[in-house]
Design goal:
Number of helices: 3
Strand order of the largest sheet: 1-2
Largest sheet: 2 strands, antiparallel
Number of strands: 2
Structural class: mainly alpha
Distance between the termini: 59 Å
Shape: elongated
Amino acid sequence: MFESKWVGLLGVVAISAAAYGLSNNRKKINYRLVGSGLVLQLVMAVFVLKVEFGQHLFRTIGDGITSLLSCSDAGAAFVRVPAGRRGAQGGVDVDVGSSAGVWLRDPGRQRRE
């Protein structure tokens, strides 16, 4: 039907028209600021999608964030170790309460019901 660049452009126009239409004070709209923001967004898109350095930079940033998330997964796995498997792995047993959120509990103590 439409090419993706035209759909994106139509989306920008539609959101801009909706913002203009829903504005309470159209006289206070700074069109220079809106235009410079759109131009800055276009320059950033070209930098990320078409420039080799931009692609490499954002790929490196993405790899760093992926590495950070894998560390958080390892930390979450440490916390979720069941009480029967504590041993050398350590960990804390997690009990999800019905309305009080997440409670960390000591498996050696009795649980309140």
